[in-house]
Amino acid sequence: MNNKTIDGQRKQKVASETMAATDKVLGAAKQFISFVNKCPSPFHAVDEVKKLLVAAGYKELRETDPWAIQPLDKYFLTRNQSTIIAFAVGGNFKPGNGFSIVGAHTDSPCLKVKPKSKTNKSGYAMVGVECYGGGIWHTWFDRDLTVGGRVLVKNNGSIEHHLVHIQKPILRVPHIAIHLMRDHNEKFGPNKESQVCPVLATSVQLELQGNKQEDDKKPEGQEKQCDKHQPALVKLICDELNISPDQMMDFELCVADTQPAAIGGALDEFIFAPRLDNLLNAYTAVEALIETDGSLKSDPNIRLICLFDNEEVGSQSAQGAASTLQELVLRRLSSGGSQTAFEEAIPKSYMISADQAHAVHPNYSDKHETNHQAGLHKGIVLKFNSNQRYATTAITTTILREIALKSGCPLQDFVVRNDSPCGSTIGPIMSAKLGIPTIDIGAPQLSMHSIREMCCTSSVSQAICLYKGFFEKYPEVFSSLKF
């Protein structure tokens, strides 16, 4: 065999391996996109995670029931139907052993329908909304919008929890014409109360179709829940759930873009999607937990994913990371050993706080610290902040770098400029509350907190790779620490 033949075979092998890797990356990205498109609200995200877990053999627990946890058990529990904790018990676990945790969040900045949302202005039937979180609100203008969330339904004396997602554009927040606001391109900061209000219908069309708008308010205490909202919106929800308006006890609805997430870019290398922050890490965490079932038998730890609601508004809720939920779960999982089993477990544990990171922006590169410009495709980002806006330390960094090295997962570093504000995550909250060694990381993205965000297809498979490596290799790396 001559050298040209050998070179040709090598090139063919490299090309084949490259194509297989590309197919794997795109396959993982497309599965994630399918997940995002089903999740217009945290309630839908938790429901989709539950479906993945149940299909993998996980069983549901309730906080109100007694638990009897054994090695190799796989369970999950929810709170408020918007936060979910799932765990797999290592075959060699005993109370006092550590916990391997990936934490993320299920919520994203959005518009939420107000408790009394019926608004009529200038011949338009409109829906009053609240601005939830730190969204880039001008990006919500001129988008084809819908609603998704949960509805509490009274049914034969029982109160049931139902999900709803209207699968068509029903709302729009229209821009003012540039002819009427000449400085539109120089300055646009909409008033969040009066100018970010979606249009649902015209009063004329509603009356033509027999839906006369009632402007007279009923006395306080005599209003039904359905009376507080536009009849056209109530009808859409009731038709979707096949219920009557009188059955609708209450709801929590998120306004969402109807444009589906998609693979984009000339080379199919980007993901254009809503809610990348932080459904990307919620999804990849559950996928990693499920995909590492085969190595559970020899694990001395319990592997957990903790996906919290309300991170975007500070986590101060019963279902947020600042609640006692995670501590109570870990304490219950430590029961059955010594009186100090929980306290013994904490220093043996490790938590990854997984939230999206800022990729360097090509049009605003001066906003990024010169030596810490995270790039797309270059790996998951380690976040550092000496003022403790991130929980990363030299020890937690060293541990994850070793895990990443053993798993073949690329990493990159990020720190904000000294003259720039720094966001935060559940990492500092959880590490301060429980004392668990914690690191803040995330996949790089652009357009964070816009209605449409952007990341690279590589991030999905890279995140799954890293979280799988963490679940499988953390106990080994922890045992190598000599301090």
Automatic annotation (TrEMBL):
<dbReference type="GO" id="GO:0004177">
    <property type="term" value="F:aminopeptidase activity"/>
</dbReference>
<dbReference type="GO" id="GO:0005737">
    <property type="term" value="C:cytoplasm"/>
</dbReference>
<feature type="compositionally biased region" description="Basic and acidic residues">
    <location>
        <begin position="212"/>
        <end position="227"/>
    </location>
</feature>
<keyword id="KW-0378">Hydrolase</keyword>
<dbReference type="InterPro" id="IPR023358">
    <property type="entry name" value="Peptidase_M18_dom2"/>
</dbReference>
<comment type="subunit">
    <text>Tetrahedron-shaped homododecamer built from six homodimers.</text>
</comment>
<dbReference type="GO" id="GO:0006508">
    <property type="term" value="P:proteolysis"/>
</dbReference>
<feature type="region of interest" description="Disordered">
    <location>
        <begin position="208"/>
        <end position="227"/>
    </location>
</feature>
<dbReference type="GO" id="GO:0008270">
    <property type="term" value="F:zinc ion binding"/>
</dbReference>
<dbReference type="Pfam" id="PF02127">
    <property type="entry name" value="Peptidase_M18"/>
</dbReference>
<keyword id="KW-0645">Protease</keyword>
<keyword id="KW-0482">Metalloprotease</keyword>
<keyword id="KW-0479">Metal-binding</keyword>
<dbReference type="InterPro" id="IPR001948">
    <property type="entry name" value="Peptidase_M18"/>
</dbReference>
<comment type="similarity">
    <text>Belongs to the peptidase M18 family.</text>
</comment>
<dbReference type="GO" id="GO:0008237">
    <property type="term" value="F:metallopeptidase activity"/>
</dbReference>
<protein>
    <recommendedName>
        <fullName>Aspartyl aminopeptidase</fullName>
        <ecNumber>3.4.11.21</ecNumber>
    </recommendedName>
</protein>
<keyword id="KW-0031">Aminopeptidase</keyword>
<keyword id="KW-0862">Zinc</keyword>
